[in-house]
Specification:
0% strand; mainly alpha
Length: 317
């Protein structure tokens, strides 16, 4: 039975602004959870447990709809498998590994640059042209990423002194851009059915990476605190955020809903400082400003292009 059919959530489902704010808050909370997981559960164990839990929930709620729409899904299965690998399994694996060697502040700000990677991915793969103002936005956002990766000291780049965690997070964003570009040709099925199949793909493809971690002797199964972290990641940024975001898109359209994603680096920074006590340096403020200005410029679209945009079917947080 779909979540929206339950009476207690019907009132919430009529409030798009609240739904979208909660979505971005939960996604920002994922950066905090990634840092809190260090020492409590190993990165690839998080990925495996997360997607097993999420796929189980999604199949329980939407399995009947998946079966009904399977003839359409089957024709797109090879591409959907790639999307699940790039956007869910690989992105999340790199994200949680990166959390072991960088701060939640850095994770959130670099993750905020994701629209730029998607724009560049569309240019390279789909030959989608970038307008002059978008090119300026890309350049400004990339400057922000470089600034955060070099910790405000650009001389580090000449000596290749980039934090390994920041480098992994940049690679994760590149992989996510492949997922986002492939979304342009997603099958014509409901968003939750689409996400259900991708979550199952992620659960299956997370098994081999988890086994590699196990074979290397690096696996740490969750402590009591670790189980709480896995539960948060599975329920809030993975499950509820997907449903809330899609509902928000249904209510106010993809153009207006997409703007809320820009809150993720801001909320991540606030949570990192407030909950983890991470120091907020000048280079964090400068990088955050550059990323947000770049995104604002890149998202200046005509009304027609906004109306024609397609919902992403949930983020890969």
């Amino acid at each position: 039975m779909p979540l929206s059919s339950f009476a207690p959530v019907q009132s919430l489902f009529a409030k798009p602004i609240l739904l979208l704010f909660l979505t971005t808050l939960f996604w920002a909370g994922n950066t905090i959870a990634g840092r809190l997981a260090v020492g409590e559960v190993s990165p690839l164990a998080v990925v495996f447990l997360r997607w097993v839990a999420v796929s189980g929930l999604m199949v329980a709620l939407y399995g009947r709809q998946v079966r009904a729409e399977w003839p359409i899904l089957k024709a797109h299965l090879p591409v959907m498998i790639l999307m699940g690998i790039f956007g869910f399994t690989a992105f999340n694996s790199l994200f949680y590994i990166a959390a072991h060697s960088t701060t939640a502040l850095n994770l959130g700000i670099i993750q905020g640059s994701m629209p730029m990677f998607v724009l560049l991915g569309a240019l390279v793969i789909l030959r989608t042209p970038i307008r002059a103002v978008q090119a300026i936005g890309v350049a400004i956002t990339m400057a922000g990423v470089v600034f955060i990766a070099s910790q405000g000291d650009l001389s580090r780049l000449t000596e290749l002194e980039i934090n390994p965690g920041d480098g992994l997070m940049i690679l994760a964003c590149l992989l996510y851009s492949l997922y986002a570009v492939l979304l342009r040709n997603r099958p014509a099925v409901s968003g939750m059915v689409f996400f259900t199949v991708l979550s199952v793909v992620a659960a299956i493809t997370s098994v081999p990476v988890f086994l590699v971690e196990l074979w290397q002797g690096a696996t740490q199964m969750p402590t009591a605190k670790g189980w709480l972290i896995v539960a948060y990641i599975s329920v809030f940024p993975s499950f509820l955020s997907q449903i809330f975001f899609m509902r928000g898109v249904d209510l106010i359209g993809p153009g207006r809903a997409g703007v809320f994603i820009n809150l993720v680096p801001i909320l991540s920074s606030i949570l990192a400082v407030g909950l983890l006590g991470e120091p907020f340096h000048f280079y964090h403020a400068a990088a955050l400003a550059l990323v947000l200005v770049g995104i604002a410029l890149s998202e200046r679209k005509s009304a027609a292009s906004r109306a024609g945009a397609s919902a992403p079917g949930g983020g890969a947080q």
